Amino acid sequence: MTTQSQDHTIHDGARTPEQLAWTRPRLATVQDGDMVMLVASDYTRILVRARAGQSTHTHQGMFAHDAIIGQAWGAAVFSQAGHRALVLEPALADLIRHLKRATQIIYPKDAAYIVHRLNLRAGSRVIEAGTGSAGLTTALAWAVAPDGIVYTHEARPDIFRVARQNLERVGLLPFVRMFETDIADGFGASEVDALFLDVREPWVYLPQVRASLRVGGFFASLLPTTNQVIDLLTGLEAHSFADIAVEELLLRPYKPTPDRFRPDDTLISHTGFLVFARCIDAGEESNRWQRKERNRYAARKKMEAAIAAEAARRAVEHPDTSGKKYPPLPLP
């Protein structure tokens, strides 16, 4: 497959307006070009980019951007129909939820934790595959901006285009270098700080992972089924990874009503298994650095195999020709 790279590498002195927005101090009022979250009176959330002279049409009427620009964050504006809406700065979760979806996105609860476990910060370099609708890409770029870079890989052209549009809309495309390619051919960077795989068979690509991830770097993957997790764990042990962990996140929202505070009627439960590991020196034996539970299990299986072998040896040396398992009981 032909590789297409969208190069948005950051160069000092030649920053785009989006890059500059990440370096300037937070201002108390909405500026032309800012992303804005309008929260309507019925709690509908509408994500817009404020542009002078433009407007946004909603179910509660038209909101003129000229009325939003210059407003203090947290203030209210009115639509042409007289409906009020709060002007709030969008959170990362808002950006992810409002992406156009060509595929299932990674939920904000998982995305935020992945960023945390991959140890990402401004200036980090991280590889992702596949891009999907760019839900996690958004979180990764948010974390590494303004001086880091995300290298993201997607094989399907239609999904690649949607992901690019999503990143452009939320203003994070300058911090992402996109590749339309099959990762079997390798990744678009080396010696990166972290690498995340959201593919069907991540264990197949562990040699490519090791070729691009620095020794000591952080690895993560999200998988929907237990058999996939088992195959990945086996592969990680065979390719010199340590500090391996498997986790899942459950999110229980509560109704914020003082007089009737109780759990919400819906629970955001299992969305996938999260697998984390660290890339170690290829000369190290992975089994030396496994968790105690893993080593105890391996020791027990080794002992069971030894007992079975001894039983088989005795059966050969002293065959039981009587067909009876136990000696006859003495007569009374």
General shape: elongated
Give the neighbour order of strands across the main sheet.
1-10-9-8-11-12-16-13
* Overall SS class: alpha/beta
Q: Average pLDDT, to the nearest integer?
A: 89
Q: CATH-wise, what's the superfamily of the largest domain?
A: Vaccinia Virus protein VP39
The name CATH uses for the topology of the largest domain is Rossmann fold
CATH class of the largest domain: Alpha Beta
Residue runs with pLDDT of under 50 for 5 or more positions: 7-13
Tally of structural domains: 2
> Under the CATH scheme, which architecture of the largest domain would be assigned?
3-Layer(aba) Sandwich
Query: What is the rounded distance between the termini?
Result: 85 Å
Order of helices and strands: EHEEEEHEEHHEHEHEEHEHEEEEH
Percent helix, as a range, is 25-40%
Give the percentage of residues in beta strands: 15-25%
The major pleated sheet works out as: 8 strands, mixed
Tally the helices. 9
Layout of SSEs?
Elements: E1 4-6, H1 17-23, E2 35-40, E3 45-49, E4 55-58, E5 61-64, H2 65-68, E6 76-78, E7 84-88, H3 92-97, H4 108-117, E8 125-129, H5 135-144, E9 149-154, H6 157-169, E10 176-180, E11 192-197, H7 206-212, E12 213-223, H8 226-238, E13 241-247, E14 254-255, E15 262-263, E16 273-279, H9 292-317
Parallel strand pairs: 8-9, 8-11, 9-10, 11-12
Antiparallel strand pairs: 1-10, 2-3, 2-7, 4-5, 6-7, 12-16, 13-16, 14-15
Task: Describe the structure in your own words.
Mean pLDDT is 89; it is low at 7-13. Helix 4 packs across helix 5 (135-144). With 332 residues, the chain is an alpha/beta fold. The chain contains 9 helices and 16 strands. Helix 5 links the parallel strand 8 (125-129) and strand 9.
